[in-house]
Amino acid sequence: MTCTTCTCLWNDSSSLEELEYAIAHGAVGATCNPVIVVEVLRRELHLWKERIEALIRSRPSATEHEIAWALVDEMTIAGARLLKPIYDAQQGRNGRLSVQTDPRFYRDSAAILHQAEHLAALAPNIIVKIPVTAAGIPAIEEATCRGISINATVCFSLPQCVEVAEAFERGLQRREREGHDVTRMGSVCTIMVGRLDDWLKVVADKAGISVDPGVLEWAGVAVFKKTYRLFQERGYRMRLLSAAFRNHMHWSELIGGDVVISPPHAWQKRFNACDVTVEPRIDKPVAPEILTALRKFPDFVRASSEGGLSREEFDGFPPTRRTLRQFIAACHDLDAQVRDLMIPNPDM
């Protein structure tokens, strides 16, 4: 894919070992989120334990939360360093490490923007994740105007992507009017394809809706393909990114597009070992009978229709709520990992 099409591969992990593997197999960027940071620390605590303890000693008045985010900063800088040669070679379009703002700020534009500026300053090739919530949209516009490349995340639908693209264009236009160069900005808009599928499966079970096996595996793909066509028609200056993998179609059906595919390490290894033909499929329509079955679900109709969700409805969309709850819980889990080193359990 990376050799024969314009589709780019990014790595979805904060593990340096996994990022090195991905780069060796053609990856030109990386993404991360709080859940992934926690998972990596659980597996690789032996690599980070000494550094966490050093941070605790060097900052005697810092809370576990402050130490945790200092650790995120260090992970970010280390990953960005690995990608910097790609960033230089591709003039900012790729070679970026994507790091997420604290999901607990999802209702506060000013807090999101303040942290985005901090994260963007860690390395020249940082791309900052901002959630596509009602408060996230103005933060995306303002961050873009200030020259920060963004990755719009916690996003599952066409109407969210359109709001992001329009906010991005407004930010770019403001920056251009101020005389700044925007050619090296590498922003993307993520569609968490598998998380939309996950929610519709929950709805099917709750509502007793019966569809043919496999239909619900296509929901995120259908939204992605339709959104991609719209982005191409309107000439939006940002790429779409596919994340939250649940099946190979979240990769194989999107090949050939000027998009980013960002699978976790395990899915990369699975794809590299599979016999799925690498060929362009982004322009191949989803079968009409599959779309007809998916339209039994009002949330699919909302996710796949322009105007199906208003900005004010983004925060209440079930996949948004489910994802925010998971990401926020992961932040508390990260704090707890630091706490175990800061205040060791005397009963252990």
Description:
With 348 residues, the protein is an alpha/beta fold. It has one domain: Alpha-Beta Barrel (TIM Barrel). 53% of the residues lie in helices and 10% in strands. The chain contains 13 helices and nine strands. The protein has a nine-stranded parallel beta sheet with strand order 1-9-8-7-6-5-4-3-2. Helix 5 links the parallel strand 5 and strand 6. The N and C termini lie far apart (49 Å).
Summarize the structure.
This protein has 348 residues and is of the alpha/beta class. The chain is built from 13 helices and nine strands.
List keywords for this structure.
348 residues, alpha/beta, TIM Barrel, nine-stranded parallel sheet, 13 helices, 9 strands
Layout: helices, strands, pairs:
Elements: E1 8-9, E2 11-12, H1 16-24, E3 29-31, H2 34-58, H3 64-89, E4 96-100, H4 109-120, E5 126-131, H5 136-145, E6 150-153, H6 158-177, E7 188-192, H7 193-207, H8 219-234, E8 239-243, H9 249-252, E9 260-261, H10 265-273, H11 288-294, H12 298-304, H13 318-342
Parallel strand pairs: 1-9, 2-3, 3-4, 4-5, 5-6, 6-7, 7-8, 8-9
